[in-house]
Amino acid sequence: MHSPVRNDIERVLIDEAVIGKRLDSMAADIEHDFPEGRLLVIILLKGALVFAADLLRRVPHLLEIECLNVASYHGGTESSGKVDFLDRHFPEVRGRRVLLLDDILDTGRTLRAVQDRLLTEGAAEVRTGVLLAKDKARAEEVEADYVGFEIEDEFVVGYGLDFMGRYRNLPYIGVLKRSAI
Ligand code: IMP
Ligand code: MG
After folding, report:
1. 72, exposed or middle or buried, with CB in 10 Å at 0-12, 13-18, 19+?
2. What is the pLDDT along the chain (181 residues), one digit of tens a residue?
3. Ligand 1 atom with minimal separation from the 102 CA
4. Are strands 39-45 and 97-105 parallel, antiparallel or unpaired?
5. Environment class of residue 137 by beta-carbon count within 10 Å: exposed (0-12), middle (13-18) or buried (19+)?
6. Whose CA is nearest to atom 17 of ligand 1?
C-alpha cells in the first residue's frame, strides 16, 4: 500500500502489537500503584498524545486529564537545553497526586522542568511515565517511574514522536531514512 508517511522510514524499531502489549502491562502497574484512583494525569503535548490516549484507555480508574504545551526542541534532532511553558494557564494541581506523561526521556530536561514546576505549584506527588527512554547519560538527574521501552540513543519518530512536526501519526516507532532528515 502506498503510504507517504511510511516511505520515509528506514526500519521499524517497535511495532504496533508490541507497543499495545506493553501498554497493557504499564496500565496494570498504574492501576496497582494507585488503587484508590483520584489521579490527575498531565499529558505533555504534542509528543505524548498518542501514547497517553492508548495508555489511559487501559486504566479503569476515575482520572482527570490535563494537557501542557512545552517546547524543548525547536525543530531539529538536538535538544535546545531550555524548556519553555507555552500555555497561558497552568492547571490547578495543589494537593493533587499527578501522573505526568511524556513521549520520550532523552536529556531529562523536559521531565525535570515540568516535575519541578508541578511541585512548585503545590502538587502533593508527581510520578512520571514515558513511552521511551534513551539509554544514555541525562543532563538532568531524573528517571521515569513507568517506562515503556528502553532504546538506544538514536532519533526515532512515530506513535506521537515527530521530526519537524511530522510522522506523529505513524502507528509504530521507527527510524527515519537519512534522505528524510
Ligand atoms: P529531553 O528534555 O531532552 O528529555 O527531551 C524530551 C523531548 O525531546 C521529548 O518530549 C521529545 O519531544 C523530544 N525528543 C527527544 N528525543 C527524540 C527522538 O528521538 N525523536 C523525537 N523527539 C525526541
Ligand atoms: Mg517533539
Report:
1. buried
2. 578 888 999 999 999 999 999 999 999 999 999 988 889 999 999 999 999 999 999 999 999 999 999 987 655 666 666 789 999 999 999 999 999 999 999 999 999 999 999 999 999 999 999 999 999 988 888 889 999 999 999 999 999 999 999 999 999 999 999 888 8
3. 10
4. parallel
5. exposed
6. 155
Q: List, edge to edge, every strand of the sheet that includes 63-71.
A: 84-85, 63-71, 39-45, 97-105, 125-134, 146-151
Report the catalytic residues.
Answer: 106
SS3 126: strand
Task: Say if residue 134 is preceded by a cis peptide, omega within 30 of 0.
Answer: no
d(C-alpha 164, C-alpha 179), whole Å: 14
Nearest to 148 by CA among 88, 102, 90: 102
Q: Is 113 in the pocket of ligand 1 (CB under 6 A)?
A: no
Q: What does the domain layout of the chain look like in residue ranges?
A: 19-152
Residue 155, pLDDT score: 94
Place of cell 512548585: 120
- Give the dihedral sign, CA 168/171/174/178: negative
**19-152 topology per CATH:** Rossmann fold (3.40.50)
